[in-house]
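Human: My hope is that you can spare some time for a protein that puzzles me. I am handing you a single protein, as its sequence and its fold in token form. Could you go through the record with me and say what the backbone is doing? Take your time, and here it is.
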Amino acid sequence: MTRHADPDTRRQQIAEALVSTLAERGLGRTTLADVAAAAQVSVGLVQRYFRSKDELLVFGIEHIYRRATERARSVPLAVPVRGIVTRLMETFLPLDEERERELRVWLNFLQASLTNPEMAAIHGAATADLMNGIVEALTAARRTGELPSGLDPEREAAALIAFTDGLCLHHATTGTGYGTADIRAALGAYIARLFGERAPT
């Protein structure tokens, strides 16, 4: 990396180093020096952009949320809606190494957000954005007849998010008990029940 890289490039470099370090060491054992070493820059350079570990973590989780949003927006919008919902939720599952690392950082962030109002607000805003997207999709499915007219999109969206979060948590804590094939299959079964097997994915 060039010595005179622009600030955005430097922050991106540091964010990637943070994700890798947190995923491996956890928040409690990660220091600014660890992140600097992973980014191959000086501690002083890291501190030029981030004054504390909390500030660095906030930037890191925002970086992860941006990547998750980009993946979600890349899902093709094509009927049946059930397929959209399935592919959308799969973008949040740890189905590859990158998302595996992101999940571990996210779990560290959630713990920190319990006592940090700024982090809690970031999590709340990201969850609200996801909720709105799923509600919109389920409302469209109800309109096209893929879901019954009496279904409550907001209630079902909240349940689907909670279920997906649960899959991520069990995957992170039990490993082989909830492997990638298992969590993908579990999500598929949940959505199949939600849609009453009305349409193929």
